[in-house]
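Build the 3D complex.
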Amino acid sequence: MSLTKEQIAQRIARELKDGYYVNLGIGIPTLVANYIPAGMNVVLQSENGLLGMGPFPFEGEEDPDLINAGKQTITTVPGSVFFDSAMSFGMIRAGKVNLTVLGAMEVSENGDIANWKIPGKMVKGMGGAMDLVASARNIIVAMMHTNPKGESKLLPACTLPLTGVRCVKKIVSDLAVLDVTPGGFKLLERAPGVSVEEIKAKTAGKLIVEGDIPEIGF
Amino acid sequence: MNKVVAGADEAIKDISDGAVLMLGGFGLCGIPENSIAALVKKKVNNLTCISNNAGVDDFGIGLMLKEKQVKKMISSYVGENAEFERQLLSGELQVELIPQGTLATRCMAAGYGMPAFFTPAGVGTEVAEGKEIRLFNEKEYLLEMAFDADFAIVKAWKGDTDGNLVYKETARNFNPLMAMAGKITIAEVEELVPAGELDPDAIHTPGIYVHRIFQGSNYEKRIEQRTVRKKN
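Done.
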């Protein structure tokens, strides 16, 4: 069984460490916030100008002046702080954010990422993604292993316009956990019931498989 | 020195066709609603708008796009606006998409009197095309220029008659940066108070950057993504 979006987020949450400042992108990455281990102090950065992002507000308590980078209504937590967009990207550029989790349309075997544009079809813009991937110390990508047609999104080289180069460190897909290494995608774990052969068949870029590959436990 | 004007119509009265405008806000949060409505009413055209987003189809800058008042948008993310995407893909609208941190820092640089700066955002991508690249500590950086805008239009929570501004929560976003960056800066505020009433330690934008200020009215503050949780 491939992982659900929630399970991808749950697996990524295991990469969190106490005291981390973390930026979570839109989509699956946002769900990681639901799986921060109890007792662990992780501060969420929202690049529109907030450190210390709390959960969604209770019904009727939405505040239009308080949103996250996905334009969703949110809350603060004790210790939260607001700042302007230049300072927000200042702390990102200066490497103060410990971990960035974001989605991708394609990742290449050398860690390039494409997630902002499909020429002639979709032009939404890069938002803060280019700033984040250019400066973050540790970047984990949450993504589907293949597109709806079944074609691999883990490629020898990206075909779509790039967001950043040689920056992705780890990928958690619906099929596997992989590190991006100098030799290519290194398979670390596989989704329960998904075979190494299936992952090989659905990974177009170079895949390194060494020894037994454990299943992800939940 | 009188910076206080009666309202949005007076504040924008000398914005003419072809002007380069900065508009504060992130999504629909902290946008200068009154001034946008006045620009739509004035039917000023061929505008270049620097703003992180382009509103939605029927609110924010989307209202100006619908009336085809915008010649060029300079933004980082425009995904919430179908009319925008249509005009862009059909070639009616010029668009320059730039990384969000670069957008913010190009505003900041203008307000700090710095013509340019280096950033790693966009290295190795199409954003880098035609730009100078310099190595610092063996890492590549792009040279990016400060913005040059005729008018900056921002929204603050509170302001005083000297033009000092205070923003609320994440409605701060690009507003203080753009406030510093306009040749003429127009601020609309929810509450205008006499100079001396704001705590000098708590002011985000010093009034020296602000040329015109007015108390806005009827703020809709539309929420783009209303996300809530249930009480147990």
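Chain B has a mean pLDDT of 96.
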